[in-house]
Amino acid sequence: MPNSAATKGTFFVYSTLLITAMLAGGCQSRAAGPTDPSQTHTGGGVTIKATYINPGSGEGPRFLVTLETHSVDLDGYDLKNLSVLRDETGKTFLPTAVENEGAGHHRRVTIRFPKPAASAGSADLVILNVAGVAERVFHWDL
Fold first, then answer.
1. 11 to each of 111, 130, 140, how far by Cα in Å?
2. Does the residue 137 lie in any domain?
């Protein structure tokens, strides 16, 4: 029979390593697939959750983006200038409108983009340079 104390010790070491890796930043967690409306990316002490709020509407894509942190002032990040939509052909689109709510450590931003070509089957919402993370990519089927 395995030694119970040794098993608990091994579990503790692996758990500690996993938690340390997650806290170090750069941990990305995506939803189950590109058709799921919400996806999350954590890095640099900031968690960004992006939700595709109008799939199948026939309009340009619209996303609700929430930014959460306990250590970074988020007021300096203007997502109108830090966000692009990139379709599967590589064409990029700039936001047509941005609505901000909240301040400091908790923000909600609605970002609207022009409609990609009908031939584009998928697109990435790309958020650039937030809290030391060069690029956060959220992928959806259109």
1. 43, 34, 36
2. yes
pLDDT at 70: 85
On whether residue 1 sits in a domain, the answer given is no
Taking residues 43-65, report their average pLDDT: 93
Name the pTM for this structure. Answer: 0.73
C-alpha–C-alpha distance, residues 74 and 67, integer Å: 8
Radius of gyration of the chain (CA): 18
Residue 43 has pLDDT above 90, yes or no: yes
Question: At residue 79, what is the residue type?
Answer: L
Domain holding 99, by residue range, is 27-141
Segments in 26-117 forming alpha helices (H): 79-82
Q: What is the pLDDT of residue 5?
A: 52
In a domain, residue 20? The reply is no
